[in-house]
Design a protein that fits this description.
The chain is α/β, with parallel strands linked by helices. It has a six-stranded mixed beta sheet with strand order 2-1-3-4-5-6, sandwiched between helices. Helix 6 packs across helix 7. The longest helix is centred in the middle third of the chain and has 13 residues.
């Protein structure tokens, strides 16, 4: 695909891009007239008054009102039946539906559109048509792209531009198994807090030193633990000679040379 191909610009210009839903303005309701109270009687007739209820605010269509028979199910469009990526979804049940617009619904406000780059090359207008059908539905809209062509750079450049303009989260998978696991992960983490997927930093100083040393390839956790046990502190490891480092059990001359060279390099460059 030509790097300067602008064939999508016209389609993208007419595409309905999601925007924050506007809250309808409420008109002030006129004050209700006081009903005329009839003279007090022994057996007054039951008064019937018609009360007009205010209509509730319109709910923006940020997600399709679709309910699954099982809340743990991934809703799958019937057109996706037989897709090899479904074989790797093992921890979530699947429910096939023909009344959903996206390929997969993995949450109340999350959907997934699946696209193979091989198919995209044959049908470049397909994804724009799908996005027009999707409209403003769903808050988190994932474009899951399976990279199955030898030279994907041009196609990915175009899809990245589309994702930015259409408010999509672009996810890449390099095989069918990986694509299925991405869909499954979105469903499994549907109601999990953000800190579940954030990097956990160990507060233990020893573990911090081990983690710092393992950033030096090819030093592993076992090597880092052995070094700290032999020298007792990071300062002594930094000041040790290459020959002394090579004498550490399990380290060897190759790792000692790489470790020594890295530790002797200036941390700040002018």
């Amino acid at each position: 695909m030509d790097d300067h191909d602008d064939s999508f610009d016209l389609a993208l210009a007419t595409m309905e891009i999601p925007v924050p839903a506007k809250i309808p303005r409420k008109e002030p309701t006129p004050p209700a007239r006081k009903p005329t109270i009839p003279p007090k009687q022994n057996n007054p007739p039951a008064a019937t008054t018609t009360v007009q209820k205010n209509k509730p605010d319109e709910i923006p269509k940020t997600a399709a009102k679709i309910t699954a028979s099982n809340p743990h199910c991934i809703l799958v469009h019937t057109k996706q039946r037989g897709n090899p990526i479904l074989k790797s979804i093992l921890n979530c049940p699947l429910e096939y539906r023909d009344d959903i617009i996206p390929d997969y619904v993995v949450g109340r406000t999350t959907c997934v559109l699946y696209l193979s780059l091989k198919y995209h090359q044959l049908n470049p207008d397909y994804i724009c048509q799908r996005l027009k059908e999707l409209g403003k539905l769903f808050e988190l809209r994932v474009l899951l792209v399976q990279v199955d062509i030898p030279e994907p750079h041009g196609a990915l450049k175009t899809l990245t531009r589309i994702s930015l303009l259409a408010d999509l989260t672009l996810m890449l998978a390099w095989n069918a198994e990986e694509a299925g696991k991405i869909i499954e992960t979105y469903k499994l983490f549907e109601k999990k807090p953000p800190d579940w997927i954030m990097e956990r930093v160990d507060a233990n100083p020893h573990q911090k030193l081990v983690s710092a040393l393992t950033n030096i390839k090819p030093v592993n956790k076992t090597d880092a633990t052995t070094l700290l046990q032999n020298f007792g502190s990071l300062e002594k490891i930094v000041n040790a000679s290459e020959e002394r480092l090579s004498q550490v059990t399990g380290l060897g001359p190759r790792k000692a040379k790489k470790l020594y060279k890295t530790l002797q390099e200036p941390f700040l460059t002018k």
